Amino acid sequence: MLLLNALIFLRGDYRASYYELCLRILSDLREAEELLSHTRRSPRGRLRVSAPTALATNFLIPALPQFFRRFPEIMLDLSSSDRPVDLIEDGFDCAIRGGELADSSLTAGRIATVHFATCAAPEYLAQYGTPQHPSDLERHVCVNFISSKTGKYYEWDFTKDGTVLRVPMTAAIAVSDMNAYTEAALAGLGCAQLTDFSARAHLKSGRLVRVLHDWVIPPVPVHVVYPLNRHLSAKVGVFTEWLAEIGATGVAAD
């Protein structure tokens, strides 16, 4: 009630600052409560985590039974989205993010490296042929991915023996969700650059075929991030350490 009354009487600009301060205070109170139980052998309580859809679905969730066996008193609230979130405003303890980080207000720990494979459905290759060189893709159709940060299409880069190629692509469809991206490739809508862990089962089953084996797609680092000035709670600490463990084996070793 006190917070509500204060917000009513404050001017707009002060109201926003006051609200942000209150959010930080509430966050500090939660961390203080966590510190009281820091000496426990097993951290406990609710842990709120944000992760990209593909990482949540193919990397994190399959490994969670191991995490809960080790830390049975932690309850996880997992939000999977390819859109960036504000950790403090949205109330997250930490987030998993792929790519290079630009936000200097966050503390980051690298947990893995994601590698990619250029793939297509057998039906697509039967119709358009199998590309032998990245330049062949100019005569092919691709599935494009829309960056949630920039709203632009991701560019297709390849490297081999020090040579870097950026290939312009014709897209039949562009999507902004990694699961939809994989499904579009499976439907034969075009070539796609899929993460190894998204493509692995489909390559094994034959629903996708890998092409351009000799050309490497630049890998992407994966980090766990949390606010710069926030004390690292026991829950976040053990979760970060566990992510690094599975990242070394479950995604790709650095």
Word description of this protein:
The structure is a single chain. The protein is of the alpha/beta class. It folds into 2 domains: 105 residues, 3-Layer(aba) Sandwich (D-Maltodextrin-Binding Protein, domain 2); 95 residues, Periplasmic binding protein-like II (D-Maltodextrin-Binding Protein, domain 2). The protein has 7 helices and 12 strands. The strands form 4 sheets. It has a 5-stranded mixed sheet with strand order 2-1-3-12-4, covered by helices on one side. Helix 3 links the parallel strand 1 and strand 2. It is elongated. The N and C termini lie far apart (51 Å). The mean pLDDT is 84.
What is the structure about, briefly put?
With 254 residues, this protein is of the alpha/beta class.
Largest sheet: spatial strand order: 2-1-3-12-4
Mean pLDDT over the residues: 84
What fraction strand?
25-35%
Q: Any idea of the CATH topology of the largest domain? A: D-Maltodextrin-Binding Protein, domain 2
* Uncertain segments: none
Number of helices, where a helix is a run of at least 4 consecutive DSSP H or I residues? 7
**For the CA atoms, what is the radius of gyration?**
22 Å
Number of domains: 2
Helix/sheet category: alpha/beta
Domain LysR substrate-binding: 41-245
InterPro entries: LysR-type_TF_proteobact-type, LysR_subst-bd
Keywords: DNA-binding, Transcription, Transcription regulation
Protein name: LysR family transcriptional regulator
